[in-house]
Amino acid sequence: MARYGMLINTKKCIGCYACRVACQRQNKLLSDEAFIRYEEKETGTYPEVGVETVPLQCMHCEDAPCVSVCPTGAAYKGADGIVGVDHGRCIGCKYCMAACPYQVRVHNHETGTVDKCRFCTVSAAETGTKMSTCVEACLTGARLFGDLDDPDSDISKAIVSDNAQPIAGSLTKAKIFYVR
To answer: Does residue 33 register a pLDDT over 90?
Structure first.
């Protein structure tokens, strides 16, 4: 079975929000819900200063703290390595939100449940669309999605050639890699 992951090249990201809007639309999120958030980091020194846009979303961690603290088992890791949420089991306790070192979980004030990036697996299964709508929407090609266990996949090759790393090193064994 594939072990899915994503590469985000912050050198190419322009912070246009196309990935976020596509995600919100694909997942039918409320206007104040977003599975992708952005941080901006200043780089360089005067007079050569720049701004790096860093999109953050669920890292689909191998050692997912959100899964280990969930009292109902609503947060889980599937056989494909994707961290998911069983909304029928979620009681909205927000333990997963507190445990997530990346702060990328979102509370839905209408349902009371907590949600997060799904790599679009739910909507893809229901509608037949491609997984990871954010990758398709990216105007600059800053995102790649694929099988991390396939050495011939585009994502595996790019991780090696660009020396991409998870944003927090090996903290949670994240499956989102960054080129910085």
So the answer is: yes
